[in-house]
């Protein structure tokens, strides 16, 4: 059987968060790429099934990256799960698939990832 491997991209400046999310995604049989800032994800080189995007990063934050994608490849936003460390996130990114607060609930995260990948 030659099933297509599901692909995920994690964009977060926090190494521990990247590792945690990677482990969760790999447990769902995703191949995971990780980058430390939005500047490294401006041009996507793969067709990701799920993109986990942190809002607060030092150089090119999640909001700026989502704005860029909105102008250049808006369809990608339907694969984005936004993570925010703020309980009252005021993200203007209604196009994103979901917004989750940090710290993440592992069960909720897994459920949202599966729903996002299967849409």
Descriptive overview:
The protein contains 3 helices and 5 strands; from the N terminus they run βαββαββα. It is α/β, with parallel strands linked by helices and 119 residues long. The longest helix has 13 residues, at 15-27. It is globular. The mean pLDDT is 90.
Characterize the largest beta sheet: strand count, sense, and whether it forms a barrel: 5 strands, parallel
Task: Tell me roughly what share of residues is in helical segments.
Answer: 25-40%
Flag low-confidence runs. Answer: none
With strands numbered from the N-terminus, the spatial order across the biggest sheet is: 2-1-3-4-5
In DSSP terms, counting alpha (H) and pi (I) runs of 4 or more, how many helices?
3
Count of distinct strands = 5
End-to-end CA span: 23 Å
Structural class: alpha/beta
What would you report as the Rg, rounded to the nearest angstrom? 13 Å
Beta-strand level of the residues, as a percent range? Answer: 15-25%
What's the shape? Answer: globular
Mean pLDDT: 90
- SSE topology string: EHEEHEEH
């Amino acid at each position: 059987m030659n099933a297509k491997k599901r692909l995920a991209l994690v964009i977060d400046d926090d190494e521990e968060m990247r590792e945690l999310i990677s482990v969760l995604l790999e447990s769902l049989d995703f191949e995971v790429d990780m980058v430390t800032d939005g500047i490294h994800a401006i041009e996507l080189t793969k067709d990701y099934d799920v993109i986990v995007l942190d809002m607060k990063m030092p150089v090119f934050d999640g909001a700026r990256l989502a704005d860029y994608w909105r102008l250049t490849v808006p369809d990608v936003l339907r694969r984005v799960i936004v993570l925010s460390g703020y309980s009252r996130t005021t993200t203007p990114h209604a196009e994103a698939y979901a917004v989750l607060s940090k710290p993440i609930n592992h069960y909720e995260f897994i459920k949202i990832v599966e729903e996002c990948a299967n849409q």
